[in-house]
Amino acid sequence: MRKEDTIRLDTHFLVRRIEVLELKQSWVADQVGVARKTVSRWCTGKVKRLGRDSAESLAEVLRCQLSELTVSDEVDVLATKEEQKVAAKLIQQNDLLELLSPSDNWALAESLIKASLQPDLPLVDLGRLYNLLSIAAWRQGNYAEGVRHAERAREIAEQTGDRGLLCGATYNQAVIDSLLGDLGAALAGYERCLEAPEFFETRRDHAKVLSNTGDAYRSFMRYPESLAAQDHALRVFGELNLDQNLAIGWVSKGMLLCEWGRFDDAREAYTSGAEAARRANFVRGVDCAPIYLADPLSLAGEREAARAQVEAALPSLAKHGVYDLGCHQIAARVFRRAGALEAAAGQVSEGLRRSEPFPELRGMIQLEGARLAAARGDAAGEAGAREAANEAFLQAGLAVRVQEGALAEHGSLSDSARE
Question: What per-residue string of b and e applies to 212-225 under the rule 16 or more CB within 10 Å gives b?
């Protein structure tokens, strides 16, 4: 039969119509005069075109218009359930989030994942999609939704006994805990994942948890443990040629080294991160890199060069809906060291406005506010900002970061902290 003698079937309408009329596929087949397996193949989308005569008979049996049962162009046809299953599998196998993450197009990722969700997917596949949805949600700052998706994935993991699925749900919850400032819960979640690394679905998943664990150790000023975890993660990311993960991991290592007072090593880490971001076409990482690099540059005494670098890079942040808010505390430090106190105050103000939901980050920016007040000779302002920083750190469970007395420069640690 020639294609021009056939009509494209609207599979969704056919299935819905049979359900609404409470008909059996076998009865429909008998009435139309085709084999019963033929109607089944129409309903699953395995056969997408049928002859005009059969289409007209089917429309009569279903008491609908031929135009309702068919479509004029193949692009108008929605995916069948079988196609949705295939799409769900492809999303998992090809890791949609990794494909889209360099552009930070998490809304698109979320829409595509939701389009492939259906209740009759294999449970483990459904759980994996919920874990992917959780990531897409928290990447957009939708933390409550991210928690709901992670909890659904955990329920499925417990129902199926799938440890890999449980590990993914635990990781997502830990990331959200970290973002919202419950650092103790976050670290406990990461460490639970690392107790049985054989259950990670991929080596990359293992390395991502190692990198986040390194960040959590840095929050608690456990620098040697942080460095060991981050180096392990970077080694795996490098072996797998995962440039975007390398870009993020190198930045995390740079932040650790800069805070630890190892400025030359921090510059090397930030430079490696910028190179990886460019290789990955990770636009946000490329745009933030000069600001991160300016911090150890300024701390090493090249204050005017660092200031010029930050001034040139800051406008690029505006094009990103989500970016690294730590850039504001770095910019404030760089401006303050260069004597640009008004510019520093602007960065502190913007950083505090944007970091309100994140207590650890808010505390770090308040510390920069305290240092700025000290630079202005404002003792009361310094004490007030330091107290606000301490409150934020305590809210995040980071009593180790509470500061008493005059503040030292960022990167100036006590001997005990360097051990």
Answer: bbbbbbbbbebbee
